């Protein structure tokens, strides 16, 4: 099934590509921040500072 996008095809495809790129960048950013925050929590726990929730940084829900 090939769709005809008309004279604006390049704009439409570029818009979808840009949106996909932004989403991929945001997902990567969140993953890196999660790792960073988990590492910070581990370091704090090693120094004896605990979380109020009582869970460790390496525990999964």
Automatic annotation (TrEMBL):
Similarity comment text for this entry: Belongs to the CcmD/CycX/HelD family.
Query: What keywords is this UniProt entry annotated with?
Result: Cell inner membrane, Cell membrane, Cytochrome c-type biogenesis, Membrane, Transmembrane, Transmembrane helix, Transport
Membrane-crossing ranges are 12-32
Task: Specify the protein name.
Answer: Heme exporter protein D
- Reported function: Required for the export of heme to the periplasm for the biogenesis of c-type cytochromes.
InterPro entries (alphabetical): Haem_export_protD_CcmD
Entry-linked NCBIfam families: cytochro_ccmD
Where would you find this protein in the cell? Cell inner membrane
Q: Does the keyword Nucleotide-binding apply?
A: no
Q: Which Pfam families match?
A: CcmD
In terms of domain of life, where is this protein from?
Bacteria
Which organism encodes this protein? Bradyrhizobium vignae
In the bilayer, the protein is annotated as: Single-pass membrane protein
**Main subcellular localization, coarse class?**
membrane
């Amino acid at each position: 099934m090939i769709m005809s996008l008309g004279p604006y095809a390049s704009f439409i495809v570029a818009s979808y590509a840009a949106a996909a790129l932004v989403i991929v960048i945001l997902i990567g950013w969140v993953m890196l921040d999660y790792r960073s925050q988990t590492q910070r929590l581990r370091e704090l726990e090693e120094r004896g500072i605990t979380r109020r929730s009582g869970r460790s940084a390496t525990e999964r829900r």
